[in-house]
Write a sequence for this structure.
């Protein structure tokens, strides 16, 4: 798969050139630059979508309704029994099929509730992805988001489901599977670009969504993504902290608030291009996560990725729940070289971050209840 610039969709006409026959959508990996994981706790984040990795979903009209498994990501095909067991031990039992199933369910039920008519034609749905699996780059929601977009176009209802509602529906698909997560991934993947997100309780309760503001992507300094093949289930990492928060644990509640407050400062910092301050905020963000989740839950290898960057003076934090790290080198190119060397020695992959521009098309923009959102 090759990225097709800012447009994540590819719609092929049928033989007589009329109705679209095949619909394909991409959704890109996301980096939580500041504030995550407070998105799941009425907090705030600044997040971006990156071109480096993406998932794609393909919808083809078909007489039966088919949800197709992926030959490698769904573990239906392995080189040997020992390879199968090894992958089950590292990645768990599940692949993307359950995400496609849940997307169909949530989409259909929402349309029913809202009185949105869906025609009776069938389709087959298949997916592919190059997002490093379960590494906190939103690989799961990328599959859901791309599938959701295919359904919007197949049923021609893109104009009927507001952009700001879509991230919650995409999250509901994962919630239906028991995956504990917040909204930031889905917001970034629906909107594209660089986003400031405010999930304050009042707004969430009243509107059912947060306030999402697209920021100029040129405000982002050069960033690097560090990752390793070390899959972990984000839902499992999140569950104990979520439970403590629900139980009223004062430390978790105040730390989550502090993480969310970093974003207020972070927004000003970005707008003023005060990148030295940005570095401090990124580091503080990870330190707070470490205190809340504990080293055992975060994993030694994931912590080492953060430490490798810090040893050369770079700022670093998790992009998501663990497995990948976003690093910023305030001292410029020589520090980037030192970081690249250090990552190579430690066996970690490192790539410069390429930001995806806004993904909203004309129809999407018209669905927004407020142009500011
Ligand atoms: N690359 C992938 N291919 C297939 N399914 C995936 C992939 N990544 C995630 N999933 C599915 O999503 C679930 C949740 O994954 P998660 O830990 O949230 O990954 P990520 O950090 O990439 O979002 C997994 O248990 C699996 O069912
Ligand atoms: O912990 C985080 O920062 C994020 O974890 C999940 O993302 P993932 O890419 O699956 O690790 C979760 O979905 C996000 O809402 C959290 O902010
Ligand atoms: Mg996920």
């Amino acid at each position: 798969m090759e990225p097709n610039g800012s447009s994540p969709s590819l719609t092929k006409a049928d033989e007589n050139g009329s109705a679209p026959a095949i619909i394909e959508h991409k959704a890109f990996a996301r980096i939580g630059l500041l504030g995550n994981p407070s998105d799941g706790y009425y907090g705030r984040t600044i997040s971006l979508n990156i071109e480096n990795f993406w998932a794609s979903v393909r919808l083809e009209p078909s007489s039966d309704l088919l949800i197709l498994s992926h030959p490698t990501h769904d573990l239906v095909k392995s080189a040997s029994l020992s390879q199968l067991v090894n992958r089950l031990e590292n990645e768990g039992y599940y692949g993307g099929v359950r995400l496609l199933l849940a997307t169909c369910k949530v989409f259909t039920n929402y349309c029913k509730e809202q009185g949105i008519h869906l025609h009776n034609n069938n389709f087959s749905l298949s997916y592919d992805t190059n997002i490093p699996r379960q590494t906190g780059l939103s690989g799961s929601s990328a599959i859901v988001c791309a599938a959701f977009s295919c359904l919007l176009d197949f049923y021609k209802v893109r104009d009927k489901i507001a952009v700001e509602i879509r991230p919650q529906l995409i999250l509901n698909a994962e919630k239906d599977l028991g995956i504990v997560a917040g909204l930031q991934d889905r917001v970034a993947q629906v909107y594209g670009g660089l986003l400031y997100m405010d999930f304050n309780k009042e707004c969430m309760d009243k509107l059912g969504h947060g306030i999402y503001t697209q920021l100029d992507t040129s405000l982002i300094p050069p960033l690097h993504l560090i990752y390793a093949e070390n899959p972990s289930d984000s839902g499992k990492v999140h569950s104990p902290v979520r439970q403590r928060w629900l139980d009223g644990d004062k430390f978790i509640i105040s730390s989550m608030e502090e993480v969310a407050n970093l974003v207020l400062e972070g927004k000003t910092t970005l707008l003023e291009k005060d990148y030295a301050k940005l570095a401090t905020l990124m580091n503080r963000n990870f330190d707070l996560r470490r205190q809340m989740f504990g080293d055992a839950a975060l994993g030694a290898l994931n912590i080492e990725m953060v430490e490798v960057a810090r040893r050369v003076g770079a700022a670093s934090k998790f992009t998501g729940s663990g497995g990948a790290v976003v690093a910023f080198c305030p001292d410029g190119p020589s520090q980037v070289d030192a970081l690249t060397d250090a990552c190579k020695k430690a066996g970690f992959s490192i790539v410069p971050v390429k930001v995806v521009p806004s993904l909203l098309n004309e129809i999407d923009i018209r669905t927004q209840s407020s142009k500011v959102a």
The longest helix spans residues 250-271. The pocket of magnesium ion (ligand 3) is lined by residues 138, 140-141, 181, 234 (CB under 6 Å).
